Structures are given as C-alpha cells and as structure tokens.
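Q: Got a minute? One more chain.
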Amino acid sequence: MASGRRFVAGGTSLVEAVVALAVMAFGMLAVVGVQSTLRLNADIAKQRSEAVRMAQEAMETARGYSAIDNPAEGQTAYGNIATTASEVLGYTTNTTYALTQTVVAHAQPPRKDLSIRVEWTDRNGQDQFIELNSIVGANDPRLALLLGARPNGIPVRQPLGRNPAIPPGAKALPSGVSVFKPPSPDGQVVWVFDNTTGQIVGVCTTVITGQAELTGADISSCSANASALFLSGFVRFATEVQQPTAADAESPASYALNLGVALTVVSSGHPTPDHVCYAAAPTSQSLALQSIEVPYYCIVFTNSSGLWSGRSNIVPQAFSEPDTLWQIADDAADVRADRYRICRYTVATSDEQPVPNVAHPRTYIDVRTPLLNQNLLVIRAGDNTVAFTCPTDGPIDPATGNLVNSNTLVHQPPPA
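A: Always. Here it is, folded:
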C-alpha cells in the first residue's frame, strides 16, 4: 500500500545564496571605504603636524636673533630676517613640503610682520597648507640682561609711596612715618623714618613689639627725638684661595663671615654716640653655611648743619662655635691665605678720583642724604705666595656685553 507522506528537500536555494553574498559584498565595500578614509585622515593629520612643527621652528629661528646687525659667526641678526622660499627636507612622510617666509618691514615702531606658510600635496593630490603669523620687534636682545642691573637715581614713582631710602621691610604708619627694627642684639631698637625725606627722626630702644605689629603707640614717646641719616649696604664674600675676577665680584658665592660695621666720623659737632650700626651676620659656622652675604644698617646722628663726614670699617667678629676670629691683612704686601682684604664697590678707578657720596668713595664728605647700596666685598689677602688685589671692572657697555660695573677698590687695610 503506497504511503501518502510527501518528502520536502532541505538547504539553501541558489537565489538565497546569491543575495547573501551580495549583502556581504556591499558591507565589505563599506568597511574598505571607511578604512581608506581613516588612513587618509591619519596621513593628513600627520602631515599637518609636521607642517606646524616646521612653521614653528622657522618662526622661533626668526624671533631668536642674537644681534640687530652684523652678527658674530654662528649667530643670526634681526636685519637678516627676510622673505624666503625653500623646500623642507628631513621628514619621512610621503609628500614634499614647501616653506615660504614672508616679511613686511615697518619703520615706526621698528618691527617686521612675519608670515610662515607651509604647503604640501596629500595622498589624494589635494593641496594643503598651514600658516603662522607674528610680529618681530627690533629690540637688541642684550638689553634684556639690563633687567638684572641695579637702577641709578631715584625712580619717578617711589616704592610704597615713600622715600626709596626707607628699608622695604619698614612698616608705614598713618602719621607719615615708617618704623623699622634693625637686627639689634636684644631686638628692641626701632628707627622712625620720615616718609618724605627718608631721614631718621626717632630712635626707640625698649620696644618689644614685633616688626609687623608695630603701631603708633609703640613709638609715641620716641618718634621725634633724633636727627640722623641712614647708611646701608651688603657685605659679600669671594674668599676662594685664588685671585678674584670681575665675574667673582659680580656674583660672589662664598659663605659669610661674622662681622660688625663701625664708622669713623671725622666731622665735628655730633652727639655721643655719633652713630649706631647693626649687621645681620652669622654668629656660628653652621649659620654661615646658610648665608653668602651680610646686610648692614647704620644711622649717623648729624651735626647742627645736618650733615656728617667719615668712613665705614668692617670689624671682624669671632664665631661662637668654634671660637675663631678672622683677621684683616696688615698691608698691601700681605700674602697670607688666612688674612683677608675688604674691597668696596665703586665706579671710581682710584682713591684720587672724586666721586659723589652715593658712588661709595673711601671717605664720605658732607653727607646730607641717606646712602644705600654701599656694598663691600671680602677676599683673601693672598695664597701664601702672591698678594691678591681687589677685582676691577669697566663701565657698563651693552655693546661689549658688560651689563654690570662690578669694579672695586681696596678699603681695608688702607692703601699705602
């Protein structure tokens, strides 16, 4: 008996297979297209990055000139910044870069408008470019070093609205004075400065209030009991056992010694005492290792004419641990390495050359104003064979690279 069951064939028809392959083909084409686009964009991004780097290097080269004109060998000059065009080599991408530098000069103010353009062709043959623009001023780069030089004269705008002779750490009070505690042994001395003239009009000796907390009440009984002029500076040290140079005088880096400062007042009619000096010197060798200079502060009580004449002197002091006292050389011929000379910073080239008091002469004559930056330098007397001399220097001259006059003359022992 024949069965009525029908058999159905299983599997995929040819049409279905063809459709599936077509869908897969379109998908693969899309993936390949995306990948191609990503590679193109990555290539362009790399090329753009390299082009920016080239333009930046060219810009910094133009801005980094070393002189206005006539540069030394290996240097560049502002006057040589000009329009140029060149092919840039040394990069590994699959293209060629062309760099064009366009310069437009202006006379007032003297400057040059600088445009750097880098062009190249990408892998699809499309032209690409980047452009940087800047302004280059005609400023002598050596003048930037003058920012580190000490200014001369009195600035038009006075610091903190008061006389520049007043120590920066002094506290201004509403009464038109400023109060300053010098480094006195007991810490109770206060000097009262007139904000307009910079002269000292009061001296207090029993004030226990700290510098920052001083008020008018602390000086109410001593704010107008004196007439004195301020004298201050720094003692610096170049005490290596070798002849110091002008560079050593400009930036001395030896450790400080313990010392005091005293004045020999040669004018008459002064009260007793005629001066008071304090120096913030290290009292031990361990403290000396933390300092390379010693600030000092003096006041000289003026006579009836409102002036004083005299000279300053360094007084060696012993360290507390160990108890050792350094000594100043006997004379110019002293060659001992354990003796020292005191040099004074001054623009004078000899003791016979007259200079104003502010320029630190050997002897001050008729001082009527406060004196700042009366700096001194301590050097060795010699190396036990040859006597050392105070280092000399020439006037400030930016053209030769001398931006600080670090000239000194012997101060102690007195020259023969």
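A: Residues 227-412 form one domain.
Q: Perfect, thanks.
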